[in-house]
Structures are given as C-alpha cells and as structure tokens.
Amino acid sequence: MSKGLSAPTKRLGYSALFVAVSSILLTACGGGGGSGVASTTPPSTAIPKPPATPNPIPNPTPPAPSKPTEPTYQDVTTEKRTEENLSDLQKPALGMGMDLKVRNWHPSNKEEKVDLKETDLAKLDGNLTTQPYDKQILDNLKNSKSIQDQANRERTAITDNTKRDNKNKTEAEIKALVDKIIDDKALELAKAEYNKVKIVNNTKTGTGSDFEHVRFGHHYLPTYRVLDIQNKIAKNGYDGGLYYEGKDPSKELPESGSVTYKGSWDFMTNAKNGGKYSDFDTLDRGGDRRSLISPDENSVKKHSSEFNVDFGNKKLTGTLKSEKANSTDTKTRYNITAQLYGNRFRGSATVPESEKSKTTEHPFTTDAKDRLEGGFYGPKAEELAGKFLTDDSSVFGVFGAKQEQKNNNTKYKTILDARIIGAYQTGNGGANKDLVASFESKELNNFGDARKLVLGSTVIDLVATGDKVTSKDGKKTITVEKPVATNKAGESTVLKDKLTVHVCCDNLQYMKFGWLTFGSETQNENNAVFLQGERTDKNMPTTGTAKYKGSWTGYLLGAKGTGGTATGQASSAAFDVDPANRFADFDVDFGKKSLTGKLSYKDDKQTTKDVFSITDGKIDGTGFTAKANTPDLNKGGFKPDSANTFGNPIHIKDAEVKGGFYGPDANEMGGSFAYKNNNGNNAAVVFGTKKQEVKK
After folding, report:
1. pLDDT of amino acid 680
2. Is 88 exposed, middle or buried (0-12, 13-18, 19+ CB in 10 A)?
3. Which PROSITE patterns match (predicted)?
4. Which residues pair with 321 in a beta bridge?
5. Architecture of 91-408 per CATH?
6. d(Cα 520, Cα 47) in Å, to the nearest integer?
7. Mind listing the pLDDT tens digit for each residue in 504-549?
8. Which CATH architecture has domain 415-561+569-694?
9. Which of 121, 387, 567, 658 pairs with 685 at a CA distance of 20 to 30 A?
10. Which residues partner with 420 through β-bridges?
C-alpha cells in the first residue's frame, strides 16, 4: 500500500476488511454460491384472485403479477478426481540435476561402487541465467588444500596488522577479523582458478547453442582432488553435475498431428572399482574412480536425440544415439516411449536387445522402465527436455530437442491457465517483493495440474492434508515455511520467504484460486491472488445454456479523497477467501458464445451487495473474455465504507477479464482481471465457479 498515507481501519461486510491505503489489511479473498452450498430465494406469495360476483365492479384493478421464483441450484454431479501416485523420479519439475560421482579409492577405506540414487537428484528452479552446481564447485575449490595453503601463507602478517589497527578488540574478535580476511582471499583465489579450468558442456554439439527455453548438459571442474591420509580419503575426478532445466512450461499444444523434434543428449555413469569399457577412453580411470560422461565416449562427434510427438493420440517416441565421426557408424543407445499428460510426458528408455549383453563395451545395457519424465517448454511447445535413471541406477541421462520445422498451418489449443496478480505490499514487501507488482498480472509456471502451485523448485500441493494445513467451510489454508536459500544444485530458490496459501474451493477439482501472502502475515509482506485451471479437453458444449455459481477473492483500491476528512485518503477493500459470503454468479449461452455474471458479497448485516458486473462475455474455444465494472459513478460507485468517510467510491471501468472452462464437459469455469488506472482506481480479482443443475 502507498507510503505516507494513514487512516483508521474501518470494518464493513461480513468478513471483508475495508481500510485506507496505508493501513495494515488482514488479508485475503472470497467466494460462494457454487462451493457446494445451494443458493435459494424464498418464493413470493401470489395475490389471490377476488371471488366471483354476479355484478362485478366495473374496471377493477387487476392483481399484481406473481414474481417468478428463482430455482434452487446445486453443483452438477461429477466424478471425484483421484491423485496419481508418482515416484519422485516421475514427478514433474522445471529441471533436474545430479552431482558427478567420485569414488574413494584409498586402500584402507575403499568404496566398491558409488551408485546414482534418486535421493541425489536436485530439483532446479528454471533460472537459465545461472549455472547449476556453480556454488558447489566454487566452495569445494575454495576449501581445497592447495587454495587454503595459498590463502594462509600471510596469516601471521595479516594477524599482526589487524592487531595494530584494532587495539581495543579482544583476541576472539581479532581472530574473527583475520579469518574473514583469509576466507575472502581464498574465495578470490578459487574464483580465478575456477574461471580458468571450469567446463560448461551444454553447447558442445552445436544443437544446444540455439535453445531458447531449455538447456542441458554437464558443468564441472576436471581437476578435483582430495588426498587425506589421516582420514583415509583418496579421490580424484570431476566435480560438478549433469542436468536439464527449462523455463516457460507450455500452455498451448498442437491440437493434433505429429511433430518432429531434434536435439542431443548427455549422460553420466556410476563409479565402480575396475569399471571400464572398450568404447570409452578411461586412461584417467573414468568409470572406475569417477563417473564417465558423454565426452569420454571414443570418436563420437555427436550424441543425438530425435522424437516424434503425436499430439492427437498423446504419444511420444524417440531415440538417443551415439554418432561416430564416420556418419555410417551410428549406435542407438535408447529407444524412448512415453505418454503425454498435459504439458508433460512420462515413460521409459529401453535398450535395444542386441546391446544388452555388451557389458564390456559400454554402460548402456539396462532399461529405465517407467523411470523417464520430461516436458514441453516455450509458449507453443517449441522445445522439449527431460531425464531418466536406469533401473540399476548405473546411468543418468538428460536430453533436449526443438521442433525441426515450424508448420504455420498447425492449430494450437490452450491446455491450461495459471497466473498471479499482485494485490498489495506492506513495509518493504519482504524477500519476494519482486515476484509480482501490485495490480499487475504475471504468468505462473504449471505442469498441467491445477492442484499444484509451482514456484521454482518449490511445488505446493493445493489439496494437501497434514500439520501445516487447515480446512474450513470450503477454504483450505496451507503454510509453507521459509525454504533454504539455495536448492541442492546451488541455485537461488524462487520462494524466498514463508508463504501462506488460502485456496478455494473444495468442490473445484480442475481449477483452484485463492490468496497468497509471502512473508510474516503482519509486516514486510507481498500479497497476491492466483488462479490455475486445466482447460476442457473434450466435450466442450456448443449449444444450450448453463448456470455457474461459485466464489471470488480480490483487492480493490480507490482514488484519494479530496474533501473533508477524506482528503488525501484512499478507500480500499480486501475480500478474503470466504465461500459462504463471496458469490460469483454467471449465465452462459454456449450457442451464442456469450456470458454475463456478477461478483457480490454479504455484509455484516447479511445484506448481499454487488461489487462487479461481468458483461460482454465472448467465448472462444475453451476460453473467454469479458468486461468487469463496479457500479457507475452516477449510481454512487462501489463504497467500501457506506458513510464514505475514507476517500472516494471505487470505480473500475471495463477491466479486461480473461478466463476459461475447465475439466470434463466444462463443468468448472473461472477467470481473473487486473486493473491499474492513472486515476488511482485499481483491482486484482480472481473467481471460480461450478456448473449448476436445478435441485429436484
């Protein structure tokens, strides 16, 4: 909220909170109607007809017509959605990585084998501007014996100088200052060495260099060595990791037809005592003391990947190959088969039968059965990427590819909506202040499942149960504690503070919406509303009409007042998630491709008041656009404070509404709008509804 403005808190409405701009709001959102509670209006009593008389009175006054009785509605009956039980390996992520393995070969403490474990996988945050494993490599290098020896050579002189310049400090304080100087020096030396010898291998094939939405490959330091006789540790090899990572998970896919993708792939192996293969260069004990990686394969000019995606039948097939310098000598290492799920795919990487017995030639002899997962990236599925781990945990592979040739005649369909709209900030906005600005709409990442909120490597289950979850009256509140500052691959996490999620509603299975509070709930917060929905894939109605009822949540801010006690003050209203007292009511005509509706709330006197009318709705495919307006100013506008003592009425004019129909048979519908006007009137609103049927 704006700084420098203050006003007493004014409460109005059942549980809505109306305040001046700089007042602290007890957040959140709203909804009602279709949340499983039937909506009724008591029928009016008809005026009885007068009794018949022999001599009727001339020109009698006719009886008043009966007021039509509004039907009693209930949610349409739908099949309950079940949660898929996926392994951690098959759960979608923006990216995955694994650290390269180095085996301890000290004769008195020898490891026989270092396998690739699922628990070693690191979920990545989709940030393509930094390199995964940078922090790990740099920290290990800084703490290495050679760097520490260099940094400590001048410790005596540094200590003497520090004592001379800080005569009033204790020995402990002096030591802390010296340690800090030595640590900074070690970091400086490590960075110089790191920049000289690090290898970033994700563009080696040429195909990786022009990817826009994904990257994949190795990032490592080839000079890793640890020799600690006292602790019986002897290691040498590569320090770093293998990974794939993507941004902008696709929200539109081709409606039908097949598309070819071409690219490359990379891999790493376990490290086992005596491990070596005739197809690989193992002079430095690769496969034995360290993981083998793609560049170790002899005479290979390219590790190529090629995929055919049948979007109509939701199937993906492909191959991962080693192409030797002699182009006629190409070996298929894995055949890929997968099923599409939204913008993700899951399946297997299987080894050709003829290669499974060649255990002395190469490590590609074991399948990854139901252990492959990936997804499409870019607005229109321009690129794909994924990973797999073999059944015996001996090979971890990553791959990426892009559409070989764009077909301008391809028809695309929107498969999901996911967006966040900034509401207001308190204090300095907290650690996540830059995630979204007030009254601005921003796309959220999503893996085709409206029940999962994706914030980088943090994925929040919106239908979860447990200690950090409370449910009441169709509203669920989920608390996510502040995560660690970096993920396992050393990337900064997107979620940087505690998060409280208020989500609506229990009866909505293919869409979710609600209110997010990043921060402490009382100060230095960033508040926002969000909406996610899986667009109707089949049986979208094209004729007939339907009633939809549900709930909404949002935040409104008005212009500053100019008269009396309202001078310099701005009205505001936060409507929390409250399905019993926030109502969304829509009438849809599928034949005319139109819709109208309204958003209302129940005040503290149990009076229902309209906040927005939704008009000029136009349906296009499974989506729609419309206009949202508060009551016209000549009708008073929307007054958060009925006495109008805290600024002007709020006036939102023709806010652009975007929304869609979700789930089978378009049984759910919702939308959002962000409104930011130079005159000081602003709004951030989301709503969700369910199709209704007349209660019998």
Report:
1. 86
2. exposed
3. PROKAR_LIPOPROTEIN (PS51257)
4. 304, 332
5. Beta Barrel (2.40)
6. 59
7. 999 999 999 999 999 976 678 999 999 999 999 989 999 999 999 9
8. Beta Barrel (2.40)
9. 567
10. 442, 530
Provide the token pair at 606.
Answer: 């149990």
pLDDT tens profile 291-323: 999 999 998 989 999 999 999 999 999 999 999
Could you give the 3-state DSSP secondary structure of residue 536?
coil
Place of tokens 């009866």: 507
Q: What strand order describes the sheet that includes 122-123?
A: 122-123, 95-99, 233-246, 214-228, 199-200
Residue 33 clears pLDDT 50, i.e. is over it: no
For 505-605, list the strands marked E by DSSP.
511-518, 526-534, 545-560, 570-575, 582-589, 594-602
Helices (H), 485-593: none
The whole-model pTM stands at 0.86
For tokens 């090979």, the residue is 395
Topology agreement, domain 91-408 and domain 415-561+569-694: yes
Virtual CA dihedral for 190, 193, 197, 201, nearest 10 degrees? 30
Residue with tokens 């690769």: 286
Alpha-carbon gap, residue 131 to 201, rounded angstroms = 11
Token pair of 240 as six digits: 């770093």
- Give the model's pLDDT for residue 281: 85
Write out the two tokens for 305: 């990947």
CA atoms of 693 and 696, how far apart (whole Å): 9
- The DSSP-derived string for 29-80 is ----STTT-----PPPPPPPPPPP-SSPPSSPPPPPPPPPPPPPEEEPP-PP
User: ∠146-197-195 over CA atoms, to 5°?
Assistant: 90
- pLDDT tens, residue by residue, 49-97: 333 333 443 455 566 666 667 789 999 998 888 888 899 899 999 999 9
Give the burial class of 628: count Cβ atoms within 10 A of its Cβ; 0-12 exposed, 13-18 middle, 19 or more buried: buried
H or E element at residue 191: helix 171-197
Residue 306: strand pairing partners = 262, 319
Q: How far apart are CA 333 and CA 328, in angstroms?
A: 15
Query: Token pair 């006197």 is at which residue?
Result: 605
Nearest residue to 197 (alpha-carbon basis) of 249, 151, 138, 285 = 138
Structure tokens at 461: 């289950």
Question: What residue type is assigned to position 193 of the chain?
Answer: E
Percent of the chain topping pLDDT 90 = 69
Q: Show the tokens assigned to 414.
A: 């929107």
Q: What's the token pair of residue 420?
A: 């966040």
Q: What is the 3-state secondary structure (H, E, C) of 639-682?
A: CCCCCCCCCCCECCCCEEEEEEEECHHHCEEEEEEEEECCCCCE
User: Where do the structural domains in the chain lie, given as residue ranges?
Assistant: 91-408, 415-561+569-694
Sequence length of the chain is 696
Dihedral sign computed on CA atoms, order 573, 579, 583, 587: positive
* CB-neighbour burial class of residue 363 (10 A; exposed 0-12, middle 13-18, buried 19+): buried
* Better-predicted residue by pLDDT, 63 or 282: 282
Q: Does residue 119 contact residue 152 with C-beta atoms inside 8 Å?
A: no
